[in-house]
Design goal:
About 25% of the residues lie in helices and about 20% in strands. The protein is of the alpha+beta class. Strand 12 and strand 13 form a beta hairpin. Helix 1 packs across helix 2 and helix 7 runs antiparallel to helix 9. The longest helix has about 40 residues. About 25% of the residues are buried.
């Protein structure tokens, strides 16, 4: 109050007066100069708000209508009565001046607007747009609200503002989108107020919470007796635990003494003013109350310890003062705004007088109040006052501004052992819009992993992961790629250097969903095939060294196939001893081995092996079968499987399938070479797609 009285005499601004008190307060606490600069005068903006041009603003920005004048008078009555009844509370943030120096009631600064962009119909899209589009400016005085509150249109024009500017703009968009949203004036921690996220985990790295498996309680479950335990062993175990606990305490004390990066205690903890958004349940199927930090766009629970208290809230229709105790932060607060004990409403929505004590409601509401005690006598009759329309012009955001929200070209956010960079769409030639770098230490010197996100690429690449330790790169593609690619992992785009390719198998005829290939082997995995094949493994031999020295490429000199293995799921329509589980084609040794599925009661699987006859030359069109080159073990089979004619027919089919399999392997090799050629060409000639509905982007693309 002394600062406020001095303001009337010396005609200083509230922020300048309180700034003097803050400097004295910090001197009394004997804080070092670096902390003082960080808590009070750090991050001062180079932008001069006094130099902005207000000549072209509408008349509603420069003058007040008779309704607004009456509203300001009622706000003064309310504020003076509040100050009289709650002398220990800080003054309300209720009618600051706008960019033209005209006092405006805070509720009339909120301009509900629904912008014509699908993402801005949801709270997450609105929050992301606001925190990306605007540049954060700290409050001039960290423990008092600002003396001015500019219109959302001016804030959008200059793309910068403090927490109150962020909040009013975000609340305007949320209310326009149908949410029950409110601006909050309260207190928060230093990290929230200064947009310091270096101690937080990056949202991109947070794993979704695991849902616990529900156990089906069974009252008839057998209860087994507890294992007997020795009292002596329990005593010895307790002694060991005490020793380990004492040792751990000593280690923790040493760690605390040696820790350097741990943040110091904030001398202004609990005093730092902040503004954020409150969203109540009910509208837009919001299940529960939550906060939105406008600086980050993140969702917070009302029990979050970062938010330390609330002074007041408002929307475009009313203003509420919090009458609850905030000693425990916002954990115990009730957000039932109809509760007149917890929230003091300015304009009664039920046309009933306020719950603040009144003495006499006989005086006219238009009388000016010079003495706070007279405010008690004039409280009540104007509670049915109708809020005037917002003085702010219609909020407009062009498509170019929506697609390019970063005024500085990019946005960089530092997290705990991570750094997140954001760009606007089409800002980079390769379509890069976001990059997350994960580090091994908090100083961010050693890179562990890099993740990149892309937009509008014609090759449908949308994410790339690079492991800096192994140099393994994984590309992820959206559906619709000409080669039906879903993911591609590699260390080099050279052939036979270790590639793992995933496909959208539902779009392929053969049901292939994954293939791994290197210089010596290839493994393919299938899904949903009619022949129940799920895995195929191929082993390759070494090429002729003479061909390698001659420089013959992989496509002209295929690798020799040593062995082909295939694995099948169980076909319930066949007997187990006729349903093949595994078959092996040893191409070079000319051996075919079949292993059949097991029935539920069987323990040993049936097998058939066809071997080459020793001393007999192999002919391509000849099938030679004898008891010497056939080994079978079919203990559960019928008599027909023991017939040589049946084995001859089976061997004939297997020879034909082996020939087809070898061709399929060659086709798979050719497909892998084609994939690598296409991917190398796509990376060398990156093209970005432009929507036919985006006139601005089409013009930019032509240029």
């Amino acid at each position: 109050m002394e600062a406020l009285e001095e303001k009337e005499e010396v005609e200083e601004t509230p922020e300048d007066a309180i700034s003097l008190d803050i400097s004295d307060f910090l001197d009394d606490l004997e804080i070092d100069e670096t902390v003082e600069n960080a808590s009070v005068t750090s991050d001062k903006s180079d932008f001069d708000w006094s130099s902005i041009d207000t000549s072209q603003l509408p008349s509603s920005y420069k003058t007040n209508s008779w309704q607004e004048k009456e509203l300001l008078q009622l706000a003064d009555h309310f504020s003076q009565q509040y100050t009289h009844l709650c002398p220990d509370r800080k003054p309300l943030f209720i009618h600051p001046v706008n960019e033209c120096g005209v006092q405006k009631f805070v509720s009339t600064t909120v301009r509900p607007t629904l912008l014509p962009y699908p993402d801005l119909y949801y709270w997450s899209g609105c929050a992301s747009f606001v925190c990306d589009y605007l540049i954060m400016e700290p409050l001039k005085c960290p423990i008092t609200p600002p003396s001015s509150l500019y219109s959302p249109t001016t804030i959008l024009k200059y793309q910068r503002g403090n927490c109150f500017d962020f909040t009013v703009l975000l609340c305007s968009l949320l209310i326009g989108a149908g949410y029950d949203a409110y601006c909050v004036h309260g207190y928060a921690t230093l990290e929230i107020c200064s947009l310091d996220q270096t101690q937080e985990l990056c949202p991109r790295l947070r794993k979704p919470p695991e849902e616990p498996e529900e156990e089906n309680p069974n009252k008839y479950r057998i209860k087994y007796p507890l294992e007997p335990q020795s009292n002596f062993e329990l005593q010895q175990k307790a002694k060991k635990e005490e020793e380990t606990e004492s040792a751990q305490e000593e280690e923790t004390e040493e760690q605390v003494a040696t820790e350097v990066g741990k943040p110091k205690r904030d001398p202004l903890h609990g005093l730092r003013v902040h503004a954020w958004v409150l969203v109540l349940p009910g509208k837009r199927k919001v299940p529960e109350t939550f906060f939105i930090n406008p600086f980050t766009g993140n969702h917070h629970s009302t029990t979050d310890e970062c938010f330390l208290g609330i002074e007041s809230i408002w929307n475009h229709r009313n203003y509420w003062v919090n009458m609850q105790d905030c000693r425990n932060g916002c954990k115990d607060l009730s957000f039932d705004l109809s509760d007149s004990v917890s929230w003091e409403i300015m304009f009664s929505e039920s046309n009933e007088p306020s719950q603040l004590p009144t003495e006499s409601p006989n005086k006219d509401k238009d009388d000016t109040v010079s003495d706070p005690s007279n405010a008690l006598e004039q409280w009540g009759p104007y509670m049915s006052f109708e809020m005037p329309v917002s003085w702010v012009a219609q909020i407009r955001v062009s498509y170019r501004e929506y697609e390019n929200p970063f005024s500085r070209g990019k946005k960089e956010i530092l997290y705990n052992e991570a750094k997140l960079e954001k760009w606007a769409a089409y800002a980079n030639g390769d379509g890069l819009v976001e990059r997350l770098t994960v580090y091994a230490d908090s100083d961010r010197t050693e890179e562990l992993e890099v993740k990149e996100w892309f937009k509008h690429r014609e090759d449908l690449l949308y994410m790339r992961e690079v492991n800096k330790q192994t140099q393994l790169t994984t590309d992820h593609f959206r559906p619709g790629h000409p080669l039906l690619l879903k993911a591609h992992s590699y260390t080099s785009l050279e052939p036979e250097t270790g590639h793992t390719v995933e496909f959208y198998h539902t779009a392929r005829v053969d049901g292939l969903w994954k293939r791994f290939e290197n210089a010596t082997e290839m493994t393919e995995h299938f899904v949903g095939r009619e022949d129940f094949l799920h895995t195929r493994h191929i082993e390759f031999g070494e090429r002729d060294k003479k061909m390698e020295k001659a420089g013959i490429t992989a496509d002209t000199s295929p690798r020799p196939i040593v062995q082909i293995k295939e694995y099948f799921h169980r076909n319930p329509e066949k007997p187990a001893d006729e349903d093949i589980e595994e078959r092996v084609f040893m191409v070079i040794d000319d051996v075919i081995q079949l292993t059949y599925h097991l029935e539920l009661q069987d323990t040993i699987a049936s097998k058939v092996v066809f071997c080459r006859v020793i001393g007999r030359e192999k002919r391509e069109d000849e099938i030679f079968l004898s008891r010497e080159n056939t080994v079978k073990y079919q203990p559960w089979s019928s008599e027909k499987h023991k017939n040589m004619l049946h084995l001859y027919d089976l061997l004939w089919e297997l020879r034909a399938e082996q020939k087809d399999l070898k061709q399929q392997v060659r086709d798979s090799e050719a497909e892998m070479l084609n994939i690598l050629m296409v991917r190398e060409d796509e990376e060398a000639n990156i093209k970005l797609s432009v929507s036919m509905y985006s006139a601005a982007k089409r013009e930019q693309h032509r240029e």
